Amino acid sequence: MKISIKKLTTDRKWRVSTGLSQKQFLKLLDLFKEEYISICGKRLEDR
After folding, report:
1. Rg of the chain over CA atoms, in angstroms?
2. What is the pTM of this model?
3. Mapped to the 3 state alphabet, what secondary structure does the chain carry?
4. Which of 4, 11, 20, 34 could form a disulfide with 24 if both were Cys (CB 3.0 to 4.6 A apart)?
C-alpha cells in the first residue's frame, strides 16, 4: 500500500500509518538519506 506523506495531516494519521510521530519519522528519514549517500556516493535525486 503506497501512502504519500502529504496526506498525513495529523499526528494520529502519522502514528497509524508509520508507528511514529511526524517528528520521529522525519528524523529517521534524514538518517536513511545520510546512510544512502554514504553507501552510494550520491543522493537518490542525483541518480
Report:
1. 13
2. 0.72
3. CCCCHHHCCCHHHHHHHHCCCHHHHHHHHHHHHHHHHHHHCCCHHHC
4. 20
The pLDDT value given to residue 2: 81
Domain count, the chain: 1
pLDDT in tens, 1-47: 688 889 999 999 999 999 999 999 999 999 999 998 888 887 767 76
Residue 17 identity: S
Instruction: Find where cell 502514528 sits.
Output: 15
Task: Report the length, in residues, of the chain.
Answer: 47
Q: What is the maximum span of the chain, computed from C-alpha positions, in angstroms?
A: 36
Cα separation, 8 vs 14, whole angstroms: 6
Residue type present at position 10: T
